[in-house]
Structure formats: C-alpha cells, structure tokens
Amino acid sequence: MTASPYIISDRDALRRVYKTPGESAVKKDIGHIDAHSRHFLAKSPFAVIATSNAAGVQDASPKGGPPGFIKAVDDRTLLIPDWPGNNRLDSLENILVNPRVGILSFLPGVNEMLRMNGRAEITTDPDVRARLSTDGKLPISVIVVTVEEVYLHCARALQRSALWDVTTQIDRKSFPTLGAILADQIAGYDGPGADQRLAARTGDLYGA
C-alpha cells in the first residue's frame, strides 16, 4: 500500500503546517498552583483525568463533585477523591504502572479550562480521605498528584462547541437511555432493570 503524502510523521513536517506558538502560549505554563488556579479549582465541579498503562494504552475518565471537590493542598499537590463507580478502575490501575497523569478541569459558564500535568499515586490514608468527605461519606481512595505543569487553556474549544449555551442542549428523551444502549450492545442484558438501578443510585451518589 502506498503511503499517503498527507500523513504527518515527524515534528518538522508538523511545524510546517502550523504556526509558531506565541510567546504567551509558551510562557503560560507556570508549573505550580497559583492563586488563580486555586480559585478555579475551588469553583470547579468537573474534571477529566487522562492516564496510560505501561504499554502506552490511554484512558480518559470523568471526575465530578461539589465545587472544589479537587483540593489544592499547596502549590504543588492536588487531592482527587475516587468515589464508588463501575469498579473497572482503569485510571487507578494505570497509575500503578505509569504515574503520569493529565487533568483538564472545567468551570461551568467559563470557556477557559485549567490544564494540569504531573505524577500521581493512590492513598487510602484515613486522614487524607477525611479531607475530601462529602455528605458525611469518605471516598474509597484518593489520587494524590504532584503537579509539574499548570496553565489555563484558551477558550476556543468551548466557544466552538457552545457547551454552556442552554439553547444547544438536546431533549434527553430524544437519546436512548444507558440501559437501552447496553441492551443493544450486550446480549441478554436487562436494559430496563439497569435504568431503574441507575435512577435509584442518584439519591446516593457517594456510596453507602
């Protein structure tokens, strides 16, 4: 098969397609959690954490909670609670073999995002878990991240998506439920039963 002449395979070729980054884009990585980053985290209820295993197979996992659920302990350390979920543990198992993580934090109504990269470990220390209690409950474990890169990402992606524009939201009834989708994907799966169980869990988001 003849290779496509349009496939970019090295950095020089890539840089011929894109402009040189501006000075602010290069210098905005401050490498620590400053007052603005801390303020952003204190108001943010949602983030995505990216990990990869020893072979480089990647995963991105959503994390959510009350505003400020990710705690900045100091200018280098983050605490991220891990609450009961589907128990696949993709992110946690990846961290065990490859501690490098990337975090993208969102703030509803603000188009800029906070990007943080660093190294992670997992703890079940009762004192650390207690710092992240919600509704009187403790996370199962806590991801402790030592940050190495920190910067605000520009607004263009969220502006293009109009993510916070309520007029772009679809009617939820126009899209299948998770149970219905899984019933189509997994032979013999009880879709209606799954939807009932998921609905019941919404009253106990943080586990028993």
General form: globular
Mind summarizing the main beta sheet? 7 strands, antiparallel
Q: How does CATH name the architecture of the largest domain?
A: Roll
Integer tally of domains: 2
Secondary-structure element string: HHHEEEEHEEHEHHH
Q: What is the level 1 CATH name of the largest domain?
A: Mainly Beta
Query: Compute the gyration radius: what is it?
Result: 20 Å
Unreliable stretches: none
Portion of residues within helices? 25-40%
Structural class: alpha+beta
The count of helical stretches stands at 8
Name of the CATH homologous superfamily of the largest domain: Electron Transport, Fmn-binding Protein, Chain A
Q: Work out the strand percent.
A: 25-35%
CATH-defined fold name of the largest domain: Pnp Oxidase, Chain A
Mean pLDDT: 95
Spatial sequence of strands, sheet with the most strands? 2-1-5-6-7-4-3
Q: What's the total number of strands?
A: 7
Distance between the termini: 56 Å
